[in-house]
Amino acid sequence: MKEPLLKIGAAYIRVSDERQDEYSPDSQLKKIREYAAKEGYQIPDDYVFYDDGISGKSTRKRDEFNQMIAIAKEKDHPFDKIYVWKFSRFARNQEESLVYKNLLRKKDVAVVSVSEPLPEGPYGALIERIIEWMDEFYLINLGAEVKRGMAEKASRGEPLCAPPFGYVMRDGQYFPDEESGAADVVREIFRRYADGEGMREIAVALGDRGVKTKGGNKPDKRWISYTLNNPCFIGKIRWSTDGTRAVTRLKYDNDSIMTVQGSHEPLIDTELWERVQARLAQQKKTYPAYARQDQSVGYMLKGLVRCSACGGALTRTGYKSGKNKARCLQCCAYNVGSCHVSHSITVPRIEAAVIDGLRQAVGSQTFAVTPRKPHQTERKGIDYDKLIALEERRLDRAKDAYLAGVDTIEQYAAIKAEITDKIAELNAMRDRDNAPQSLNKAAYAAKVAGVLEIITTDGIAPEAKNEALRTVVEKIVYNKPEERVEIYFWGD
Known about the structure:
The protein is an alpha/beta fold. The protein has 16 helices and 17 strands.
């Protein structure tokens, strides 16, 4: 086969910080294309992969990188070289770099750094390993230096992160957000809690008034708790010196947490803060963590029941009390105040309703089916339209090569047949994933009847009944206002 005049390559561009002007996307791509052209490679726009604002420590969140690797792994990959500005743009984690480069090497795809040319032979491989090690060391050392610098800044009482609800940032300093009324909301939260109101009660009242958190969500119990425990509102700065997320996980007594006097204006006075902290301590003592009994014990409908108002899970709540050991289910979002519609129901009552609903479905052979496609799960995230478009552009280039006299009619015919088959295969895979599933009602009714027999048999553990239910039931929606239970089944 005649060698094409220009070979096809790919470019991978990554910037982790907008301030990296010397490594801007445009300058990286310009240098890459100039270098590739000298090696006889063309880089079409379709094969320029760009991850913006993402660290090279891991490939987990680099969508374009993963798309590039997926294309390179194909049997008939369209490019055989991946150009990067520096090897650190490909990865700063030496272990992942080795894994992906070895994978690409098996597919005859090379990774080339345009600013770090390597000599041929074993010395080139050795130098590449040294560069990768230095890149990873730089990342580790940079992280340690950043942590030390931030801890030093925090020790001086300077803000290190976005201000909490109730403050705005101006010129690197926190100022009370009086204009929007957020500062008054914070003061109200502290005052109401100190006066004896519960966190959920406060959250519901604020939500009903239209108050939104900085994330645009309704206030809930967790948000109220975080606010009441935040010393920023008495003019202090809190920081985790070892980089852990102890504060966001509400572990305020963690040894790594540093609290120092800040330079911003407090929203509440020390006397109100101490009243609130005293009540929080008393509540913690009265209702210690994990006080509820038998929370680890399973029940038949665990994880299956949903709230009709918000879609949240209904979880078990309440304590054992004397002879009354029946527990209730309640919407987990309602428990924290973000859902305002109660869906409380006893476990025996909803279990009886579900069993009755299953019997009716078996008798009428009527099932509300949610399609389940294991093959789709296996190929989750594949963009078939994009892959088909890439193949169609390959076909256009093959035609251009024939018209330009680069390839013969026989070569063009062979390439066209190969690409046409690939497009047909991708179309078939896309149609398979999107095709509606048929349901053999009689066979499915027999399957549900078998599950019914298991869950109505005494002596079988609740966990086993739950596992049996999950083979046919996708979810159960409880609509308390209408006293209705809706069962959604998996398709075959």
